[in-house]
Amino acid sequence: MKNELTKQSILLFEKKGFNQTSIQDIVNALDVTKGTFYYYFASKEQLLMDIHHDYITNLLKRQYGILDDEHLTQKEKLMKIIHLLITDIADQGPSARVFFREIRYLSDENIETIKQKRNQFRLNIQKVIEEGSKLGEFHNELRADMLSFGILGVTNWSYNWYKTNGEVSPDELTKIYADMILTGIAKRR
Amino acid sequence: MKNELTKQSILLFEKKGFNQTSIQDIVNALDVTKGTFYYYFASKEQLLMDIHHDYITNLLKRQYGILDDEHLTQKEKLMKIIHLLITDIADQGPSARVFFREIRYLSDENIETIKQKRNQFRLNIQKVIEEGSKLGEFHNELRADMLSFGILGVTNWSYNWYKTNGEVSPDELTKIYADMILTGIAKRR
Amino acid sequence: MKNELTKQSILLFEKKGFNQTSIQDIVNALDVTKGTFYYYFASKEQLLMDIHHDYITNLLKRQYGILDDEHLTQKEKLMKIIHLLITDIADQGPSARVFFREIRYLSDENIETIKQKRNQFRLNIQKVIEEGSKLGEFHNELRADMLSFGILGVTNWSYNWYKTNGEVSPDELTKIYADMILTGIAKRR
Amino acid sequence: MKNELTKQSILLFEKKGFNQTSIQDIVNALDVTKGTFYYYFASKEQLLMDIHHDYITNLLKRQYGILDDEHLTQKEKLMKIIHLLITDIADQGPSARVFFREIRYLSDENIETIKQKRNQFRLNIQKVIEEGSKLGEFHNELRADMLSFGILGVTNWSYNWYKTNGEVSPDELTKIYADMILTGIAKRR
DNA sequence: GATGAATGAGATTTCATTCAT
DNA sequence: TATGAATGAAATCTCATTCAT
Fold first, then answer.
1. Cα–Cα distance for residue pair C36/B4, rounded to 1 Å
2. Residue C188 has what DSSP assignment?
3. B151/chain A closest Cα distance in angstroms
4. Rounded distance in angstroms from the CA atom of residue C84 to the C1' atom of nucleotide F1
5. Which residues of D touch C187 (CB under 8 A)?
6. Of C18, C37, D16, D158, which has the fewest beta carbons less than 10 angstroms from its beta carbon?
7. Domain around B149
8. Are both A19 and A54 inside the same structural domain?
């Protein structure tokens, strides 16, 4: 039941937004009553926090799976992280959109917790760039911090428009963006 | 008064979100009454629409100023558009954040109007890329559509984190991102 | 201007009701401003009172025109009064409907004034019946009071449904109702 | 509770009118809170619709009870319907007055529904008159439609003035009006 | 585990009226 | 005569949450 409530909530939060979704909406969708909701969740915000926590924890875990693979070059790591984000937003659309859009409705304390994890994710990208620079895979003197934000922008922005069932697959989109980030779009003279 | 209400609303919407900001909050900040608000705005949503409309209209106008300059190469146009976005988000932070975050609270009809203009802005970027490819400034066979989304991601994402008063100026950030987009971060072998 | 305001108000009060019609609605219809309204009327209620007072005063005056005509039998007087009411409701539809429906929105004091005049109108009918009984035009021992209410019911109810432009003219309707009231619908054995 | 809210509302609507009665007034009278009201009714209008629907449904049911009785002549049916209306208005005064006065505050859609039922009630009277004409109980060539409106006027108007506790009982009033309608008030020469 | 009646605080909106100009 | 900005009181409605069962 808790699981069903969470799933249904994600769908509703995505469609109508956290604030526009009432507990009543959620329990109606499952044909149970409000009491049931409060049996499983301490508050509406707690549910939102659960969703956020699950999402970022899972993402971080998978990022570490990439980072910890010693056979990969930094370039490969970066590509795999881009791929991770694109596919995740494509596959878990609703969760991803709730994650990016509704963080504001968490309590200050919870926002802090989530932002820390989000920042950790970004810092890990920054480190890949720094390491790549040092190892000669990437240019020297890159602003790894600014670039990590830029790369996250490229990928995360896709939650605003990207639809899996379009003509471009996640794999293709990954290649398009990785090419742009690694080699640019300008022709060499 | 209408102007003051709009300005104050933007600040509050940015800080607390559209939904979390009550009309009471707005009028309290200016020491007037709710009646005054409704003398100037038909509804809370109408105010939000005004904000959105002003923002995107201004942005589009400035984009066309760049596009219509015949002395510029496509590469230069692209750089100027990136610069336009970065500086705009830096300078008009609150408006920009309201624009990106609160569009959801518009009516379906108004969302449509705004999205059309937003899409026009993106299509204009796409055309620059296509033209650049044709003229030999950029690679051939680029997915100009996907790249236009990616470039917007890089710049627009900055509303989430970028602060003007940090160590990196808008001009510098523009250069960092233009370099990445045009020539990539990977070292050529 | 005062006259135009009154006329327009009657039309709006009929269509939307007194309460549902705002001063704004009224002045909008004449392209003036609220200040203008309050220059001519002390309050919204005062306007309604004016409308009521004009209506019932006019009706009473015309009733006395009938009553004071010494050439008429009581039967003829009754018929003329029925005719007066039917035609008035037909001709002055909006005023009539406002008069019957919106009295509630007058102040207690004003209600009293209007009700007194309305009752005078009814009492005058009652007197015609009593006089007719005494003179042998009508049956003896009629409950003239109850009948006066009944006759007013027949005629006044028409404001609820009667439309002049239908197939039955006010003159025809008067005859139908006068026949019913005077001779009944049952066949004599 | 729902029932108590409805009952109390009818009393308040009668006394002050639908518009002049706030939800606050209603719940204050029962010492509950506004939330309670909205737990039971979707809106203030829904409550009004419930009242209307119940009233006219009950009235129609009782009318059919009369119409379907094959032992009755048309004259008797007409008398019983008059009796039904008079007693109903006398007994259920508040409901009746709300029914006649406040229909305007229903939504267009709901007005339509109620008016259809009201019209059915009237058409049933019209049919009795037509049938009575055919069977020789009533005159030929009566305008049964206009007369049905007139008869309803006689009875329904009583909600405006009739008080049970006066000197005339519902049974007596029924006789007075039935006599007028069937045989008229004029003396036969 | 689950129900559902009840709460209470707050949100948006309406509008008659005032008043300085 | 007329304007229009501003007020303030009240109205409808929403909803997260509680709690006895």
1. 29
2. P
3. 7
4. 39
5. 136-139
6. D16
7. 43-183
8. no
Smallest CA-to-CA distance from D17 within D38, D44, D54 is with D44
Q: How far is CA C149 from CA A152, B52, C118, D127, D173, in A?
A: 83, 63, 11, 26, 11
Is the shortest CB-to-strand distance from D49 to strand F under 7 Å? no
Place of tokens 């009473």: C60
Which segments of A42-162 are extended strands (E)? none
Question: For residue D2, how far is the Cα from the chain centroid?
Answer: 23
Asked whether residue D53 falls in the same domain as residue D130, the answer is yes
B56 and B2 together in one domain: no
Asked whether B186 and B179 are in contact (CB, 8 A), the reply is no
- Whether A45 sits with its Cβ under 7 A from any strand F atom: the answer reads yes
B156 within a domain of the structure (yes/no): yes
Does residue B8 fall inside a structural domain?
yes
Using an 8 Å CB-CB cutoff, list residues of chain A that contact chain B: 17, 19, 75, 101, 104, 129, 132, 136-139, 142-143, 146-147, 149-150, 152-158, 161-162, 168, 173, 176-177, 179-188
- Is residue D37 in some structural domain? yes
Q: What is the CA radius of gyration of chain A?
A: 19
Q: What is the CATH number of the domain that holds A124?
A: 1.10.357.10
Token output for A145: 């911090």
Does strand E come within 7 Å of the CB of C21? Answer: yes
Q: What is the pLDDT of residue A1?
A: 84
Say if C100 falls within a structural domain: yes
Neighbours of C3 (CB within 10 A): 8
| B106 and B49 part of one domain | yes
Q: Distance (Å, rounded) from C-alpha B91 to C-alpha B169? A: 11
**Chain segment B86-135, per-residue pLDDT in tens:** 999 988 889 999 999 999 999 999 999 999 999 999 999 999 999 998 99
Distance separating alpha carbons of residues C56 and C45, to the nearest angstrom: 17
For residues B70 and B132, state if they share a domain.
yes
A and B interact (at least 3 Cβ pairs within 8 A): yes
Residues of chain A with pLDDT under 50: none
Given a cut of 70, is residue D188 above it in pLDDT?
A: no
Q: Convert the pLDDT of each residue in C37-68 to its tens digit.
A: 999 999 999 999 999 999 999 999 999 999 99
Q: Is the minimum distance from the CB of D149 to strand E below 7 Å?
A: no
Q: Provide CB contacts within 8 A for D51, sequence distance 6+.
A: D6, D9, D10, D13, D95, D98, D99
CA distances from residue A4 to A29, D125, D133 in whole angstroms, order as listed: 10, 58, 69
Asked if B139 lies within 8 A of A185 by C-beta distance, the reply is yes
Q: How many domains does chain A have?
A: 2
Neighbours of B10 (CB within 10 A): 24
Both A115 and A172 in one domain: the answer is yes
